[in-house]
Automatic annotation (TrEMBL):
Residues of the DNA mismatch repair protein S5 domain: 211-329
Source organism, top-level taxon: Bacteria
GO MF terms held by the record: ATP binding; ATP hydrolysis activity; ATP-dependent DNA damage sensor activity; mismatched DNA binding
Species name: Massilia aurea
Transmembrane regions listed in the UniProt entry: none
Protein name: DNA mismatch repair protein MutL
GO CC annotation: mismatch repair complex
Similarity remark: Belongs to the DNA mismatch repair MutL/HexB family.
Single Gene Ontology BP annotation: mismatch repair
Function: This protein is involved in the repair of mismatches in DNA. It is required for dam-dependent methyl-directed DNA mismatch repair. May act as a 'molecular matchmaker', a protein that promotes the formation of a stable complex between two or more DNA-binding proteins in an ATP-dependent manner without itself being part of a final effector complex.
Key words, A-Z: DNA damage, DNA repair
């Protein structure tokens, strides 16, 4: 094979740095949806509208009614390593917001056409910035809050674009991200449309109602509420009875401090708790939220922030396992006879 070209070490241009980072942050359209929804929630929004076109590849436009971005801050919103959420290492160790890396919008803007329109409560009108942090901030119109309009994902990175799946598949991933986030925030109204058609609309509601809406009646009719605390750990939500179990693991929602996570420790703890009541080839359905002091969990494990590391993962495992097992044991004793084993 030909020897690779070796050049002198040189600083990469800003755009290329962001495109490299985008490989991790902006894996596919659904990752954009996730980042934009997290930003909308961090901004204190109570109503969020998600409009998708062609599976999100053509367009992802998310409008919120949150606190907005002041015009002089718009270029910073699109700059790398610029964030309003942390300012120091101690903030990083106590992250209470969904975002903190300050790179999502810059990454997205490096691989798509982005327009940010925003209006703060005290501004006479909205302002917008187009393209990148180098874009000109211009007056615009719109209500208080922010719209981030992302078009033509990967238009300038054709190699990346080739990895996209069909419109239907990309759409399904986007819709899944919206469901996950909508489940975690019943106090926020969401609406989702695809190619101009409203697909879903969730009004502000009780947690019980939101989860019934999203997981369906099978779950709503066969679930147990759980709410347990021990020391710094608080677990709450719903666990489905064996009758609400599924052939696939698509009814499992675990949140840590409001963030949807895929965590081996947690999945294992829940699975073990179901062991006595559920056949091995079935997957339990559950919506569980673990809240704990942010200093006890590291969310800065991967750019996508769906992985976490607990300071004391054994204690977390024990607590979750026992809480779920106790909850399931109560009813299996009343509703299903004695628990085998
Ligand atoms: P991060 O969320 O990690 O701070 P982002 O690149 O996602 O980084 O966003 C950069 C900054 O832009 C945020 O810190 C926030 O101040 C601002 N921002 C982004 N989206 C919104 C929004 N929807 N409403 C208000 N401010 C926003
Ligand atoms: Mg963010």
């Amino acid at each position: 094979a030909p020897a690779p070209t070796i050049r002198p070490i040189q600083q990469l241009p800003d755009q290329l740095i962001s495109q490299i980072a985008a490989g991790e942050v902006v894996e596919r359209p659904s990752a954009v949806v996730k980042e934009l929804l997290e930003n909308a929630l961090d901004a204190g929004s109570t109503t969020i509208t998600i409009r998708l076109e062609e599976g999100g590849v053509k367009r992802i436009a998310i409008t919120d009614n949150g606190r907005g971005i002041a015009p002089e801050q718009l270029p910073l919103a699109l700059s790398r390593h610029a964030t309003s959420k942390i300012a120091s290492l101690s903030d990083l160790e106590n992250v209470g917001t969904l975002g903190f890396r300050g790179e999502a919008l810059a990454s997205i803007a490096s691989v798509a056409s982005v327009r940010v329109t925003s209006r703060t409560a005290n501004a006479a009108h909205a302002f917008e910035i187009v393209g990148s942090h180098e874009g000109v901030v211009a007056p615009s119109s719109g209500a208080c809050g922010t719209t981030i309009d992302v078009q033509d994902l990967y238009f300038n990175t054709p190699a990346r674009r080739k990895f996209l799946k069909s419109e239907q598949t990309e759409y399904a991933h986007c819709a899944e991200v919206v469901r996950r986030i909508a489940l975690s925030r019943p106090d926020v109204a969401f609406s989702l449309s695809h190619n101009g058609r409203t697909i879903d609309h969730w009004n502000v509601s009780e947690a019980a109602k939101r989860s019934a809406h999203i997981l369906g009646n099978d779950f709503a009719e066969a679930r147990l509420a759980l709410d347990e605390a021990a020391g710094p750990l608080h677990l709450h939500g719903y666990v489905g009875l064996p009758t609400a179990s599924k052939a696939r693991a698509d009814g499992q929602f675990f949140y840590v401090n409001g963030r949807f996570v895929r965590d081996k420790v947690l999945v294992h703890a829940v699975k073990a708790a179901y062991q006595d009541v559920l056949h091995g080839d079935r997957f339990p359905a559950y919506v569980l939220s673990l809240d704990l002091d942010p200093a006890l969990v590291d969310v800065n494990v991967h750019p996508s922030k769906t992985e976490v590391r607990f300071r004391d993962s054994r204690a977390v495992h024990q607590f979750v396992f026992h809480a779920v097992q106790r909850t399931l044991a109560q009813t299996s004793a009343t509703a299903h006879g004695s628990v085998p084993g």
